[in-house]
Design goal:
globular; binds 1,4-dihydronicotinamide adenine dinucleotide; seven-stranded parallel sheet; 250 residues; Rossmann fold; alpha/beta
């Protein structure tokens, strides 16, 4: 893990139950931040938060569907209340896939993915941006995907949502730059999590062959980049999109 000092800071991570989000929450916690962990599965989220705290962290669980406007408003109010109206770092990580070819994609498959992956970051960022503006400090890190940069067969909904996140990142970065708030995005390549565990083994092998460094990514690979963007030292870096993909799309 790269060394970053986040002592005294407050971070919010969506989709912190497992996979990349859990890896990010652990890393931010190890760097000293108090972490508000958002997820939808109470039992699993509580278990993840317990694990972070048993390792010496200061994490709290907040159950919230990031696509639900009222729930996001309510949860943001609870988080701001608990942490003295202070949120320094926001990581919009929650995401889903509903992969299928365009010609058989249902309205629900399209809408569900756009709701969680694109409306989610919009609702959550909007809910915390005023607190960041008031404190004149903030680090927003959005988790996009290389699919949103180069497209991927069977992921018209997902690629569109992640391309949307990239546009959202660049625009919000411009809106808040004068308040010492940076907004950046990370586009992971193939990272070993529950999301990718369900893929057809043939696709997985084909993917691995396309990764120049010759291995799949781990949540820690993404967490290290989040730590950099989330650090006070990254104050001159904003509106950037970085692919963390073992060289897949270079
Ligand atoms: P995952 O499926 O293991 O974890 C997703 C997390 O998001 C879970 O904690 C889940 O509870 C949460 N979540 C889902 N819907 C939610 C909702 N409506 N409200 C709140 N939380 C919700 O996925 P993984 O692999 O950890 O992915 C994390 C992010 O990284 C996602 O945005 C994904 O699109 C992105 N990504 C992942 C890649 C990979 O290879 N695993 C590649 C590129 C991007």
């Amino acid at each position: 893990m790269i060394q970053v000092d986040l002592n005294g800071q407050v971070a919010v991570v969506t989709g912190a139950t497992r996979g990349i989000g859990f890896g990010v929450a652990k890393a931010l916690s190890k760097a000293g931040a108090a972490v508000a962990c958002i997820g939808t599965n109470a039992e699993k989220l509580n278990a993840s938060v317990e694990q972070i705290n048993s390792d010496g962290g200061k994490a709290t669980a907040f159950i919230c569907n990031v696509a639900d406007s009222a729930a996001v408003k309510q949860t943001a109010a609870e988080i701001l209340e608990q942490y003295g109206s202070r949120v320094d770092i926001l990581v919009n990580n929650a995401g889903i896939t509903r992969d299928t070819l365009l010609r058989v994609m249902t309205d629900e498959q399209w809408d569900d993915v756009i709701a969680v992956n694109l409306r989610g970051p919009f609702l959550v960022t909007r809910a915390f941006i005023s607190a960041m503006r008031k404190k004149k400090y903030g680090r927003v890190v959005n988790i996009a995907s290389i699919s949103g940069m180069i497209g991927n067969r069977g992921q018209a909904n997902y690629s569109a949502s992640k391309a949307g996140v990239i546009g959202f990142t660049r625009t919000v970065a411009k809106e808040v730059a004068n308040r010492n708030i940076t907004v950046n995005a990370i586009s992971p390549g193939f990272i070993e999590t529950d999301m990718t565990a369900v893929l057809d083994p043939m696709i997985v092998t084909e993917m691995k062959n396309r990764i120049p460094v010759g291995r799949f990514g781990q949540p820690e690979d993404i967490a290290n980049a989040v730590l950099f963007f989330a650090s006070p030292e990254a104050s001159f870096v904003t509106g950037q999109i970085i692919a963390i993909d073992g060289g897949m799309i270079m």
